[in-house]
Structure prediction request, 75 residues.
Amino acid sequence: MSALPFSPENRKIVMLLYRRSLKLAGDWINKRDHLRSKALEIRAQFELHKNIGNPKELNVSITWIQFYELKADNL
Prediction:
């Protein structure tokens, strides 16, 4: 991971994690209205953390997202 928090590489990683989070939610939730509310919740979490300027903080956030996705995949 690059040292710059707003680098194109980090942007790609975060976009990939966002899409993967939405897909994972879609795999687990079968009702459209529940999926919509979960998608809004996921979006809110990403929006809340979108202005992280500290590279260490960004790495921690990305690691947590990857951990939760891995955990959900293995359920």
